[in-house]
Amino acid sequence: MSLKTFRTPLAASAVLAAVLTGGPALAQEEAEPITGDPTAEPGLELRGRLDGERFDVWANLLGLTPHGSEETYTVYCIDIRTPLDTESPYAEGDWEESGVANLESVRWVLFNGFPNVGAEDLIEASGGEVNPDWSDDELAEVAYAGTQAAVWHFTDDWELLADNPVKGGNDGEDEAVLAVYEHLTEDTGRVPDPSEYIVDLEGEEDAGYEDGRFGPYTVRSNAGPVTLEAEGGRLEKANGDAVESLEDGEEFWIVLEEASSEITVTGTAAYDLPVGRVFLATTEASLSGDAANRVVSGESQKLILAEPREGEVPAEWRFALDAPTDRPSESGPAPQLPKTGTSLTVAFAAGLALLIGGLTAAVFAKRRSTTH
């Protein structure tokens, strides 16, 4: 027997979940800016062109050590015309404030470049050759230089020369750096902003009851596979197999526990947060609690964080489901199946903190009107 359903919304409230910090956080609270000190290690000198003229530049290996942390994170320059002042502290800003172009392209380059892809793997994926005599540091220099060149291509419209791109390059450095650069600047894709990630559910309006189960329900996720769990019943695929994880567009059915009429389904999509956090040079005064503007760009090049951090997109749906009772055919059609459903689905707010700050997920309760 297959029956149309109708619903009466359950009461639900909006929820705020702090994912990285392990505790609650309010979306309206303004997080303290991440501050830190830049570092620079020797790298390769690259030959290129800027504004139609020769412009050679050092691709030194840059890092940022957050205040209060001992870990140094890989960062890249997004401001080729300005030298780096390693004595100047840095604070997190935003892309609009930096005035730099092509954030989505830069984010894709960093997500697919070094160190998110290992140095040797990146060079080989680019079609370049790894010199077996290179040390780990030399490998890193080559992969970093190719990635930095690609970043500058999008932020500053700088072009790496195809002929001897590494000044004084030898032992295959020229070919490998150029291969990485071309790999990261050709057919550049798009990495979504975390604020675009969502996990949701479709099919509540059309789900029916047949062979002892309710459904189908369709998972929607642009944040990757969704791990599903249920309290008050179990979830099945079309063939009856238990559901553990589903991709976007895949379906599941609900089987209630005996004598139960309610079930809570939770879903979690785990992913790596896209790179793209911008850091601007500051003055000590701009970091004080009395400063009107807590982030003030100084005369030192702008930096962008290269490393992603893991995050989760949680979601929860609650249903009250009543299976219809069989009736003799002469009594007419079986009664409609009452069903209530509340979908708590998640969308991330902008300004996520990857280093020390919290990651706040805003969970919005959807309430639908009764239909028949």
Automatic annotation (TrEMBL):
The protein's UniProt keywords, in alphabetical order, are: Cell wall, Membrane, Peptidoglycan-anchor, Secreted, Signal, Transmembrane, Transmembrane helix
Q: Which domain of life is it from?
A: Bacteria
Q: Does the keyword Membrane apply?
A: yes
Query: What transmembrane ranges does the database entry give?
Result: 344-365
Cross-referenced InterPro entries, in alphabetical order? LPXTG_anchor, Thioester_dom, TQXA_dom
- Gram-positive cocci surface proteins LPxTG domain: residues covered: 337-372
Q: Where is the signal peptide?
A: 1-27
Q: What is this protein called?
A: LPXTG-motif cell wall anchor domain-containing protein/TQXA domain-containing protein
Q: Which organism is it from?
A: Glycomyces sambucus
